[in-house]
Amino acid sequence: MKNSKFKPGTKITIFFIFFSIVFIGLGVWQVERGQSKSKILQAYNSAGEKDPQEIQDNSNKWQRVSIEGKFDGKNQILIDNVIHKGIAGYKVLTPFVSNNIDKIVLVDRGWVSAGNNRSKLPDISVSESKVEVYGTLDSPELGFVLSDKLITKDWPKVSQSKNIGVLKEAFDYELFSFILIAEPTLKDSLEYIKITPTNMMPSKHYGYALQWFTMFLALCFMYVWVGRKI
């Protein structure tokens, strides 16, 4: 019996090389994404294990901090389109004036339902007496937006993003570079939503990477099979 020779041809070889690069590149990219998410989770968990420290100008993301001062209930912002337990609502960000730092800190007091009438904003009143707030610092990314008009004009304002770079446009004073997500022990807390430091777990990225590498191996098998059959 005559042995078949391996002659895949130029077009098949170009096809194989192109998609091999694509599949391997996507697999490596997912591995790197998984490693990046692991570092984020590690930093978040490590910070959460520590006792709250008094907020400082050089405080870091995910750090648990405490701050003393008063809420500014007249200039609050509602973050639109926040779904919680299948219900549409808002995250409520309230400016906090403190002697700890010169800048104004936006405090995430929690979630409130939008109700059935979207033209009527929910009651987000807050006490302006002196309080101490404990929470975790976060710096939300801008994310995907469909319009340049992200914030309404009248107070309380409604924003399509909770990115500090967007929110600072609504204020005449300088904002602290992080949002303080208040712990539910706060007297004026609304419904607390547990912090999710990443929108996808590392294991999911590694799973996607495995799929891409598997597709590469399947492509290799098909290349060899077709090359010997032609």
Secondary structure elements and their pairing?
Layout lengths: L9 H39 L4 E2 L9 E8 L5 E8 L2 E12 L5 E10 L17 E8 L18 E3 L4 H4 L7 E8 L19 H28 L1
Parallel strand pairs: 1-2, 3-7, 5-8
Antiparallel strand pairs: 2-4, 2-6, 3-4, 4-5, 6-8
Helix pairs in contact: 1-3
What are the defining features of this structure?
alpha/beta; elongated; 230 residues; 31% helix; 8 strands; single chain
Description:
It contains 3 helices and 8 strands; from the N terminus they run αβββββββαβα. The protein has a 5-stranded mixed beta barrel. Helices cover 31% and strands 26% of the residues. It has 2 domains: 59 residues; 120 residues, no CATH class. By secondary structure, the chain is of the alpha/beta class. β3 and β4 form a beta hairpin. It is elongated and about 90 Å long.
